[in-house]
Design a protein that fits this description.
14% strand, 42% helix, alpha/beta, three-stranded parallel sheet, TIM Barrel
């Protein structure tokens, strides 16, 4: 069986309250052996950790503050992140970053919160998962100040150009490729052809960014097979090879141990 790692899925959200166990088991049965689960803010820590406790060895939590949750009280939120990192077990800092699509009014706070989480990634020796929406210039400028300090991680839901992809890769990051790759007007085909499999990891961002043929419905981790099939077709390889290399990449970035 082909094996995959879903490096980004919010399976603790209310969209899965009716069938969460079925969703996880379906994914595992279809070869998704690990599901990495990013935090949003203090309100999601409990549900996320409950999910990880319910499916040990399959669901692995991250700890961070999502940029759209950065408001005036972001320091309080970061204090909670720091507390969790001291007492819990997390596979990454995330998801962090900057999002200027929904709201630009807290750009300063988002930049400060992002830099603080980069510092935490270095302090704890963890990779960082970066959310970049209409904010690549701002994020790359901040990352310039962290060059050659050993940062690693993933640019989640990567949608930028091949040129930016090269820059991100040169900084030690992988590109998170999800359902957007399967969309008719996706501009990612050129990007993945240029980068090749060695710099990519797969993700679903469930329940969001559902791939074709389920676009418009709730996303779930088992649908990663459709992303892999499209990626294989673009790169003129096999889903088996996509699964092998992206799994190897994810295991290299996220030290989550062997498969359960």
């Amino acid at each position: 069986m082909i094996t995959y790692i879903d490096t980004h899925a919010h399976l603790y959200l209310s969209e899965f309250d009716a069938d969460r166990e079925t969703v996880v088991l379906n994914a595992v049965q279809r070869g998704v052996k690990k599901i990495l689960v990013p935090n949003i803010d203090s309100s999601s820590i409990g549900p996320m950790n409950d999910l990880a406790a319910r499916f040990p060895g399959t669901c692995f939590p991250m700890m961070g503050l999502h940029p759209t949750s950065v408001k005036e009280d972001y320091q309080d939120e970061l204090d909670r992140v720091k507390q969790e990192l001291k007492t819990g077990s997390y596979c990454a800092i995330g998801e962090s970053g900057i999002d200027l699509y929904w709201d630009k009014s807290h750009l300063k706070e988002q930049c400060l919160a992002f830099a603080a989480q980069l510092d935490l990634a270095l302090e704890y020796g963890l990779p960082i998962v970066i959310h970049a929406r209409e904010s690549f210039p701002e994020i790359l400028e901040i990352l310039e100040g962290y060059k050659d300090r050993g940062l690693s991680g993933v640019f989640h839901a990567f949608t930028a150009t091949a040129e930016i992809a090269r820059q991100v890769i040169s900084m030690g990051f992988k590109l998170g490729i999800g359902g957007i790759l399967t969309y008719k007007k996706s501009t990612l085909h050129e990007v993945v052809r240029e980068t090749g499999l060695e710099h990519l990891v797969l993700e679903t961002d469930s329940p969001y960014l559902t791939p074709v043929p389920f676009r418009g419905k709730r996303n779930e981790s088992s649908y990663i097979i459709h992303i892999a099939e499209v990626l294989a077709a673009i790169l003129e390889t096999t889903p088996e090879e996509v699964g092998r290399v992206t799994t190897q990449n994810a295991n290299h970035v996220f030290q989550t141990g062997p498969y359960a």
